[in-house]
């Protein structure tokens, strides 16, 4: 299959941006952010896509010439089989997993670190340089755990990118969060106009 023929719009023009596939792995989450477009929460139905479907989608995306695959939810690291999906994808294409960073400790962090692929990034939601800015819409205590998650990921050698949703609580302070997140955090797909993760 000639992927160059597919990476064109309906008028036959070359695509302006590299094609990216977004895979929603599940819809439950340890948080219940007030602005969550997926309406995720601890009570949301999981609706897990499962490794077989995710791997099939990755294969199709690679065959079609997609340049990057994003795994999002819900919170993907609730799933015990997320590592299998990430390892499969990262072996084939640039792969980013979106997370609130709060669960990446102990065995979860170790399993993610063990994938050990230069193709893999973790995109962590960080809505500000202070707890007040971040917690206003994400919940009390979430900023502190996200910051710790970023530090643990970075120490484990996992590439970290940040994602921010601009809100009334953090508007005007968007760049301050990079100073708080510390050296090693790389501002990748961040979209202050709206959190791309959900
Ligand atoms: S915005 Fe992200 S972290 Fe917040 S409830 Fe939705 S999926 Fe969970």
Descriptive overview:
- The chain has 198 residues and is an alpha/beta fold.
- It has one domain (32-181): TIM Barrel (Alpha-Beta Barrel).
- It is 33% helix and 15% strand.
- It has seven helices and six strands; from the N terminus they run αβαβαβαβααβαβ.
- The chain has a six-stranded parallel β-sheet, with helices on one face.
- Strand 2, helix 3 (82-90) and strand 3 (94-99) form a beta-alpha-beta unit.
- It is globular.
- It starts with a helix and ends in a 12-residue tail after the last strand.
- Residues 1-5 and 183-198 have low confidence and may be disordered.
- It binds iron/sulfur cluster.
- Iron/sulfur cluster binds next to loops.
How widely separated are the two ends?
32 Å
**Cofactors, ions, other ligands:** iron/sulfur cluster
Number of strands: 6
- Which strand order does the major sheet show? 1-2-3-4-5-6
Q: Tell me the domain tally.
A: 1
Q: What's the gyration radius in Å?
A: 17 Å
Segments where pLDDT lies below 50 for 5+ residues? 1-5, 183-198
Q: How would the global form be characterised?
A: globular
Name the helicity range.
25-40%
Q: Spell out the helices and strands N to C.
A: HEHEHEHEHHEHE
Give the overall average pLDDT. 87
The CATH architecture category equals: Alpha-Beta Barrel
What is the CATH H-level superfamily? Aldolase class I
Largest sheet: 6 strands, parallel
For the record, the CATH class is Alpha Beta
CATH topology: TIM Barrel
Q: Structural class, from helix and strand content? A: alpha/beta
Strand coverage percent: 5-15%
- What is the overall number of helices? 7
